[in-house]
Amino acid sequence: MDYDGTLAVIVNDPDKAYLSDEVFNFVGIKDINYAGSHGLDIKLSTTTESSSASGEIVEEGHSYQPAQEHLAAINKVYNSLLRATDGIDGATVENNKYCVSVHYRNVAKENQARVREVVEEVLEASGDGLKMTEGHMALQGKDCGVGILVSEANRETWASYSLRNPSEVGTFLNKLIQAKAQMI
């Protein structure tokens, strides 16, 4: 699940997104795998046995960060993006350790395409092989999850389902756990 706008109410400044105590306590379960930074920071549950994409065995309850070796390149691109977006009002750059997020929700519509151009230019100039992905379509066509839009606004989406706000996300997750418990 995404954090900002899904588990936490979406805000103009992503650094100010926070989990409510109710959601925070709910998410503190041990039997799920947690993945952050668009799947690049993974902590396996204590009940999961898995292997990494490189074939190495990942022990139960341990972390796997496939982008660890690229941290220097990620930091370099982060700093370049900070400089490159400095003149675009409303654009913000967030260093998520294993990836960089460029937010344009506060950028005027006529400047949003420029944000994308700047990101593409910085990545090409870096020569580090880093690639841009778009957060809103991360699951589309990948057979690895279900897209659920969390928004009070009725809008066009790639998501299969929708919930209105983080409170409804918590209710939905509780119902999933109850349904699973009934199956056992």
UniProtKB/TrEMBL annotation:
Keyword Secreted listed? The answer is: no
Which reaction does this chain catalyze?
Answer: alpha,alpha-trehalose 6-phosphate + H2O = alpha,alpha-trehalose + phosphate
BP GO terms, sorted: trehalose biosynthetic process
Tell me what this protein is called. Trehalose 6-phosphate phosphatase
The yes or no answer to whether the keyword Manganese is present is: no
> Which Gene Ontology terms cover its molecular function?
trehalose-phosphatase activity
Keywords from UniProt, A to Z, are:
Hydrolase
**Per the entry, which co-factors are needed?**
a divalent metal cation
The organism encoding this protein is: Digitaria exilis
Residues spanning the signal sequence? none
